[in-house]
Amino acid sequence: MIDETGKLPSGIMEQSQKLLDFAADYIKLPESKEMAVTFVDNKRSHELNLEYRETDRPTDVISLEYKPDNEEFFFDEDMELPEELLEEMDPFIGELFISIEKAAEQAQDYGHSIEREYGWLVVHGFLHINGYDHYTPEEEAEMFGLQEEILTAYGLTR
């Protein structure tokens, strides 16, 4: 975890680490998996959102899921490796970028604590990296339901 801004509220990095560990256990993610979290300002969030999502504005959380492929490893070109083996060989699953300015704005807009907002963003991004989405009503119900389950079980309620 990195705070590029130097302005992350006290205790948020520790809370985020504990919550990510809790969420990983909750969805039974293998302990070998790793991800990066970087706390950024709106300027950096805007740049990333434009680069990765072609959206010309800052956003609260950007999730970049990493999926290894055969090219990442030095094997014979004709060799096909099972997905499970590729995942086992490379523990890095992705990275999150969280705008501290958006987190503060949204906590105020939604009327809940800054801790709850960071928790929501961390778990939301984490679930995206682990294959959850909310493009359809069914996906949204599944992802947001699981997200709320994790936050409630952890103790970060509204």
UniProtKB/TrEMBL annotation:
Origin superkingdom: Bacteria
Question: SUPFAM superfamilies under this entry?
Answer: Metalloproteases ('zincins'), catalytic domain
Subcellular location field: Cytoplasm
Which GO CC annotations does the UniProt entry carry? cytoplasm
Record InterPro entries: MetalPrtase_cat_dom_sf_prd, YbeY, YbeY_CS
Could you give the cofactor binding note from the entry? Binds 1 zinc ion.
Q: Which GO terms describe its biological process?
A: proteolysis; rRNA processing
Question: A Gene Ontology MF term for this entry?
Answer: metalloendopeptidase activity
Residues that coordinate or bind Zn(2+): 124, 128, 134
Q: What is its EC number?
A: 3.1.-.-
Predominant cellular place of this UniProt entry's protein: cytoplasm
Signal peptide positions on this chain: none
Q: Which UniProt keywords apply?
A: Cytoplasm, Endonuclease, Hydrolase, Metal-binding, Metalloprotease, Nuclease, Protease, Ribosome biogenesis, rRNA processing, Zinc
Q: Which Pfam families match?
A: YbeY (PF02130)
Co-factor requirement: Zn(2+)
Q: What does this protein do?
A: Single strand-specific metallo-endoribonuclease involved in late-stage 70S ribosome quality control and in maturation of the 3' terminus of the 16S rRNA.
Q: Which NCBIfam families match?
A: rRNA maturation RNase YbeY
PANTHER family associated with the record:
ENDORIBONUCLEASE YBEY, CHLOROPLASTIC
Q: Which family does it belong to?
A: Belongs to the endoribonuclease YbeY family.
What name goes with this protein? Endoribonuclease YbeY
Q: Which organism is it from?
A: Lactococcus fujiensis JCM 16395
